[in-house]
Amino acid sequence: MEKQQTLVRSAFFSGIALHSGARCTVRIQPAPENTGIVFRRVDLPGKPEVRALACNVVDVRRGTTIAEGKAVVFTVEHIMSALNAWHVDNCIVEMDGGEPPIADGSSLPYYRMIEEAGIQQQEAEAKTFTPKQPLYVEGGATKIVLIPGQEKLSISCLASFKGCPVDPQFHEFILSTEGYRDEIAGGRTFVDYGDLKQLLAMGLCKGGSLDAAAIIHDGAIICKEELRFRDEIVRHKILDLIGDIYLTGCRITGTVIAIRPGHPKNVELAGMLLREIAAAQ
């Protein structure tokens, strides 16, 4: 049986947050067995904590936000995605702000941060879960089904954005640490130009730039550097899904088929899984 894992040593990363535009330092610390993933706001009195679970999600607009009491953390999905890829079961994610750095818009900086810290195996058995029956969520253009399976987490994803020069995009991925690094971690955040104008009008994206995202506009993709993948949009969608599904507190196995996924339905699926996990205990 696989064992739980944590980091060998702490590692940190600093940068500008996407929506607030504030500078934040993230420090991921090792934690004992059965701790799970816990976010700690060291900038607030008492250093309040929130566990990274679907039941603590309070907002899914433009990212996944978790909160418990005074501890509120925005856009946790990129960190959670990298932790899932490394099979980190237990750690404390300390932050001196409410939103982690957007970095280059991908999870690659967090993947490398964990790699630098190192992974150590613990004694307790890893918590894995697959549902007894297929689970299905849908809403609008989004449809996601999880088919039970005991071996790995496999994701088949279709993404479609109006005005994107490569549309639709499809990618299949079986979660592994090395495969995630090569195929998924580098996928950057994308935004439609019309949505960007709306976000700016709402006072969001204060820390946004072409260093951190690519813009879809009038049949073109505008970014500072060349696309890392021809189908970079769908790879980022898989990145987000891997992060959101880790809000179950378990290593989920099975086959996910996702059509135009987004945070609202990703988190709804994670919530269904969390309830099934609780019922099975």
UniProtKB/TrEMBL annotation:
One of its GO terms (cellular component) is membrane. It is an enzyme of class 3 (hydrolase). GO terms for biological process: lipid A biosynthetic process. It catalyses: a UDP-3-O-[(3R)-3-hydroxyacyl]-N-acetyl-alpha-D-glucosamine + H2O = a UDP-3-O-[(3R)-3-hydroxyacyl]-alpha-D-glucosamine + acetate. InterPro entries: Ribosomal_Su5_D2-typ_SF, UDP-acyl_GlcNac_deAcase, UDP-acyl_GlcNac_deAcase_C, UDP-acyl_N-AcGlcN_deAcase_N. Zn(2+) binds at H78, H236, D240. The active site is at H263 (proton donor). It holds the Pfam family LpxC. Keywords: Hydrolase, Lipid A biosynthesis, Lipid biosynthesis, Lipid metabolism, Metal-binding, Zinc. HAMAP family: LpxC. NCBIfam families: lpxC. This is UDP-3-O-acyl-N-acetylglucosamine deacetylase. It comes from Victivallis vadensis.
